[in-house]
Prior knowledge:
This protein has 492 residues and is of the alpha/beta class. Helices cover 34% and strands 17% of the residues. The structure holds flavin-adenine dinucleotide and iron/sulfur cluster.
Amino acid sequence: MGKVTGFMEYERLEEGYAPVQTRLKNYNEFVIGLKADESKIQAARCMDCGTPFCNNGCPVNNIIPDFNDLVYRNEWRNAIDVLHSTNNFPEFTGRICPAPCEAACTLNVNDDAVGIKSIEHAIIDRAWAEGWVKARPPKAKTGKKVAVVGSGPAGMAAAQQLARVGHDVTVFEKNDRVGGLLRYGIPDFKMEKSHIDRRVEQMQAEGVQFRTGVIVGKLPEGSKVTNWAKESITPDELQAQFDAVVLAGGAEQSRDLPVPGRELDGVHFAMEFLPQQNKLNAGDKLKSQLRADGKHVIVIGGGDTGSDCVGTSNRHGAKSVTQFELLPMPPEQENKPLVWPYWPIKLRTSSSHEEGCEREFAIATKEFIGGEGKDKGKLRALKSVRVEWQGGKMIEVPGSEQTLPADLVLLAMGFVSPVASVLDAFGVDKDARGNARAGTDFIGGYATNVAKVFAAGDVRRGQSLVVWAIREGRQAARAVDEFLMGSSDLPR
Ligand SMILES: Cc1cc2nc3c(=O)[nH]c(=O)nc-3n(C[C@H](O)[C@H](O)[C@H](O)COP(=O)(O)OP(=O)(O)OC[C@H]3O[C@@H](n4cnc5c(N)ncnc54)[C@H](O)[C@@H]3O)c2cc1C
Ligand code: SF4
């Protein structure tokens, strides 16, 4: 433990943000990380409480008290080793993790939690800057071949772990770049993509082969899921060519809103809108782009994806941005004695909300309304209704219907499941929600019903978080290594 009385002496310091007017002019990251001396003081707030609930609250089980102590003692190089021992990509989580660890921090019982995420961010950024992050190629090869389907955080973590123990790993990705939703969902202003590119280089030096633009199986006709594949390979071919296959294709099927007017020009899935901007930021040329400039934008869905649509619409120069949430507004402050150390339901205001957004709660969409004359077929308004929740049931409030101007509606109501056709082509059983059925037991975990086919990340657990995808990728890698070699030294 760094400083015994640190938690009584020092207050929590948040990371800084560039001013709204500056950051709205571009798509760059705008979080200003803690400096070394600030990180040291923040790390001193960790009281080494003895039972680190934070370690359990973190899905990858980061060894938080240890890296806090090392930062306090100025032992940054050891701190990154501790961090990397549980998390392949702390620069991703240090930027975009919602930090369930902090909800579980013991100091959070009656004070502000230790700023764990900002310390993690500081450690990994320093490690990259100092040149401490190096490729770790295996000492010997096993001669076993593993295919990973999907290059999101789950696929990347699985591939890196498997390559480091000597397997020949090939990652198949239908999109034109590696990264999954980190690349084409999450906007650059939350996480610049150079962080992924650096890891791809590291993984290539460790022996991982990436085959982008190659789809495994095929999507159903008319699918709106991102797909820039130029080649395809069938599940049968993959199974014949590889000793094991890890399915890490995410849960890409967006939830739709089939109300009257859904077919109007101007109603789109968030995942039709967000990837285009990320592609442009990457220097690609697009034939056309869905833009929000000068438009009344309504984002339907109150989560991360919705918030990213808000931030992107404001950067485009939308006339107005409104976000709908079906559920009532949660309390601003959670009842800590009741919920700690679990993730509390409370009002969360993202940096994108701070940039300008009208937030409406307990509201449902009845209809999308098109224009007339030359505007026929084009979205011009949205009819909404207030709702109340009684005994878990949603009831419309009579007489509360309202018509709002809307030129662009972005559907950001989450993802229902993975694309069924790909799982079906493998013959993989699905659970009741349509996810790949596989458990997480120590023995036999992540294995599907199909011989030598494993599943990890959103494709198995349903839409979730980057940190959970990293955990599942790591754990699935261990399961695959055990399957191939009879035993494994990889951590779980
Ligand atoms: C807009 C948005 C914002 C988000 N913000 C956050 C956030 O701030 N913090 C957070 O923790 N989480 C966030 N999430 C959730 C997070 O991104 C996901 O939980 C996570 O990326 C899941 O990782 P994954 O590797 O399982 O799948 P994905 O990231 O979805 O990657 C799957 C990859 O597999 C590829 N693929 C699928 N099928 C095939 C096939 N048949 N052949 C070849 N390739 C295939 C896909 O093209 C994709 O690249 C956000 C999600 C979205 C959509
Ligand atoms: S990965 Fe997320 S939960 Fe884990 S320590 Fe980092 S911020 Fe906390």
